[in-house]
Amino acid sequence: xxxxxxxxxxxxVTCSGSAAKRGKEMQELHIIxxxxxxxxNGFITAVGKTKDLLPDVTxxxxxxxxxxxxxxxxxxxxxxxxxxxxxxxxxxxxxxxxSYMDIMQRGGGINATTxxxxxxxxxxxxxxxxxxxxxxxxxxxxxxxxxSGYGLDRDTEVKQLVAMNELNEEQPVDIVATFMxxxxxxxxxxxxxxxxxxxxxxxxxxxxxDQNLADFCDVFCEANVFDIEQSRKxxxxxxxxxxxxxxxxxxxxxxxxxxxxxELGAVSADHLLQxxxxxIEKMAGKGVIxxxxxxxxxxxxxxxxxxxxxxxxxxAVALATDFNPGSCFTNSIPLIFALATIYMGMTIEEAITxxxxxxxxxxxxxxxxxSIDVGKKADLILLEYPKYQFLNYHFxxxxxxxxxxxxxxxxxxxxxxxx
Length: 419
What we know:
By secondary structure, this protein is α/β, with parallel strands linked by helices. It contains 16 helices and 16 strands.
């Protein structure tokens, strides 16, 4: 039996809870000073003060956390980390004033990643994905969502999802797969969006379901991409296959994506830069998690989502990177903390909640990860500093020293990645 005890944590930031935290609840981090955590066979079996737990623990490996804050592993609940090819020229175009939608119209954007992703082998996608996951792990991410959506045909969408499922078994970070065949309309369906939606429903969704490749279905519900009716049709079909649903909603143009998320009981609505007051209130009323992606707004030079309004209206807010090859080529968790607290009106406490228990809830994993509670996986991070406030005070710098995944040290800054 594998047994460990972490002791002397200057702050044990438990984020304790078994459900998403809404509104004022997001301030509650449930901190234990001089904290300790007992781990057995990868799961947390006791949480408390060192003086209370240490005397009763025998035959355990001791990890001394003196001078360190200890937090749950971060949950990055919105990424597109499996893809082929890169688009650095588009970043330069945007800096000269070319809009995201204009880039799509000139053949860039999502479709520019489709061709190299279709051409990539499964092994190539996995090799690149594994490298990106290692980088995420170094930032303290122990659970990540990955979306397909760069194949836009049956074989490549399946290939992306297979890559994620196989990587989930081969490296430490837990991967939650999302099918997003409705990420863009591929060239072969140009001008025939309804026909493409029917293709996804009739040809691709059944294959994804039969192979049990994804927990969620997502759609880019946006002007000139998939409208409200097309998005509703697709997501209802996904529900009929037993999948939970998400939306890229109201990112560029306000078309009612937040309202649709509430209507369908989506687990989350993501982006939400242009979400209406009515949409926000409906999401809060239906318990739809608002997953905000500040690095994307930063990269696109767009106004940030109204995190403060959403929290004050009773929403559960999650934060994620939106790591992808186009609009947001970063997986920097320190950048997310900086943007959320400096520009979006969130407190550091709310931001931590958003990256832990609320991120887990956005993936329906809140019973397993996202907080330091008895019975959950021992996914923990040790900071180089004694207080959690250093996460945004030492802004844009990675201060994660160690990462434990199911009780095993899988990253140590002092000796790079552990075997």
